[in-house]
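no rush on this but wanted to send it before i forget. theres a chain ive been looking at and ive put its sequence and its fold in token form underneath. please have a look and point out which stretches look like helix strand or loop to you. thanks a lot i owe you, the record is right below:
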Amino acid sequence: MREIALWTSEVLDITAFAVILLAVGISTAAFLVRVWHTGFLANYRDYRANLGRGILIGLEILIAADILKSVVVDPTLQGIAVLGGIVLIRTFLSTSLDVEINGHWPWETTRLAQQANVPEERGPA
């Protein structure tokens, strides 16, 4: 079981690296094509958002790999403490990227969706 978990965590590490690398390559290629047609400023925000999404996916995969390593492969108190620190740092990075991509805190999504569905109140005519 331990060997499978170690092998799986290594595969997840490689997968996360590949996902981030592909995200950078695809986002950059799409950005350059769009810049050629419509200009830099019109596409810069989308480029950053696409890069952020790719990095977020890669971070989630890395967290899964770290959980396998810490819980199954090295189930010591020190290993769990290191996992906690890694998860905290990556959660902070994920939240920061999410705010950068969407322009608001993740917990504001429901409030913003509700505001979008409420018709505007009009004053007296």
Notes: Helices lie at 2-38, 40-73, 77-102, 109-117. The mean pLDDT is 82. The first helix runs from residue 2 to 38.
